[in-house]
Design goal:
- The chain is α+β, with helices and mostly antiparallel strands and 149 residues long.
- It contains 4 helices and 4 strands; from the N terminus they run H-H-E-E-H-E-H-E.
- It folds into 2 domains: 29 residues; 89 residues, no CATH class.
- 27% of the residues lie in helices and 13% in strands.
- The termini are far apart.
- The C terminus is likely disordered.
Length: 149
């Protein structure tokens, strides 16, 4: 073989291997956060946060019905939604668009039926940041409690 044919063979090998690697990553998910419909998976996941009306994430005890918190007063709610893929810790503020926008359910901690509809346990502690089965807005059709209820 000549030096020229070896160079041509090497020049073809790189794109072929790169294409094969790209095909493998695409077929195996490759960390791409989209489902088959092109919807961002992070936007489909729902999480629960105990927060006040002002969006400040509260300690979990504020929404723990078993510990005497969240029995229907005090301004604490459990918000269930995707929150734009963001995660929050106590003291941080959940922006207004994630507290009242479509796809977010606000539940009074003492409302067992609303908690169940939202995919939460009917009573007890819900740890902030807990993933909730069922995706965004599960329970949004009548699942959210209005302020003062």
């Amino acid at each position: 073989m000549t030096a020229r044919s070896n160079r041509a063979r090497a020049a073809l090998a790189v794109p072929v291997l790169s294409g094969a690697a790209l095909g493998f990553l695409t077929a195996c998910g490759g960390g791409v956060p989209y489902d088959e419909d092109g919807v961002d998976r992070a936007q489909q996941e729902s999480y629960a946060y105990c927060a006040g009306e002002d969006g400040v994430v509260l300690p979990d005890s504020a929404c723990d019905t078993a510990a005497g918190g969240g029995g229907g007063g005090g301004g604490a709610f459990i918000f269930v939604g995707g929150f734009g893929g963001q995660r929050y810790s106590p003291g941080q503020v959940i922006p207004p668009e994630y507290r009242s926008g479509s796809g977010t359910t606000r539940v009074s901690p003492g409302d067992a039926a609303a908690r169940s509809r939202a995919g939460l346990p009917a009573s007890g502690k819900v740890t902030s940041g807990t993933r909730v089965a069922g995706g965004i807005g599960k329970g949004a059709a009548g699942g959210g409690a209005k302020a003062g209820s």
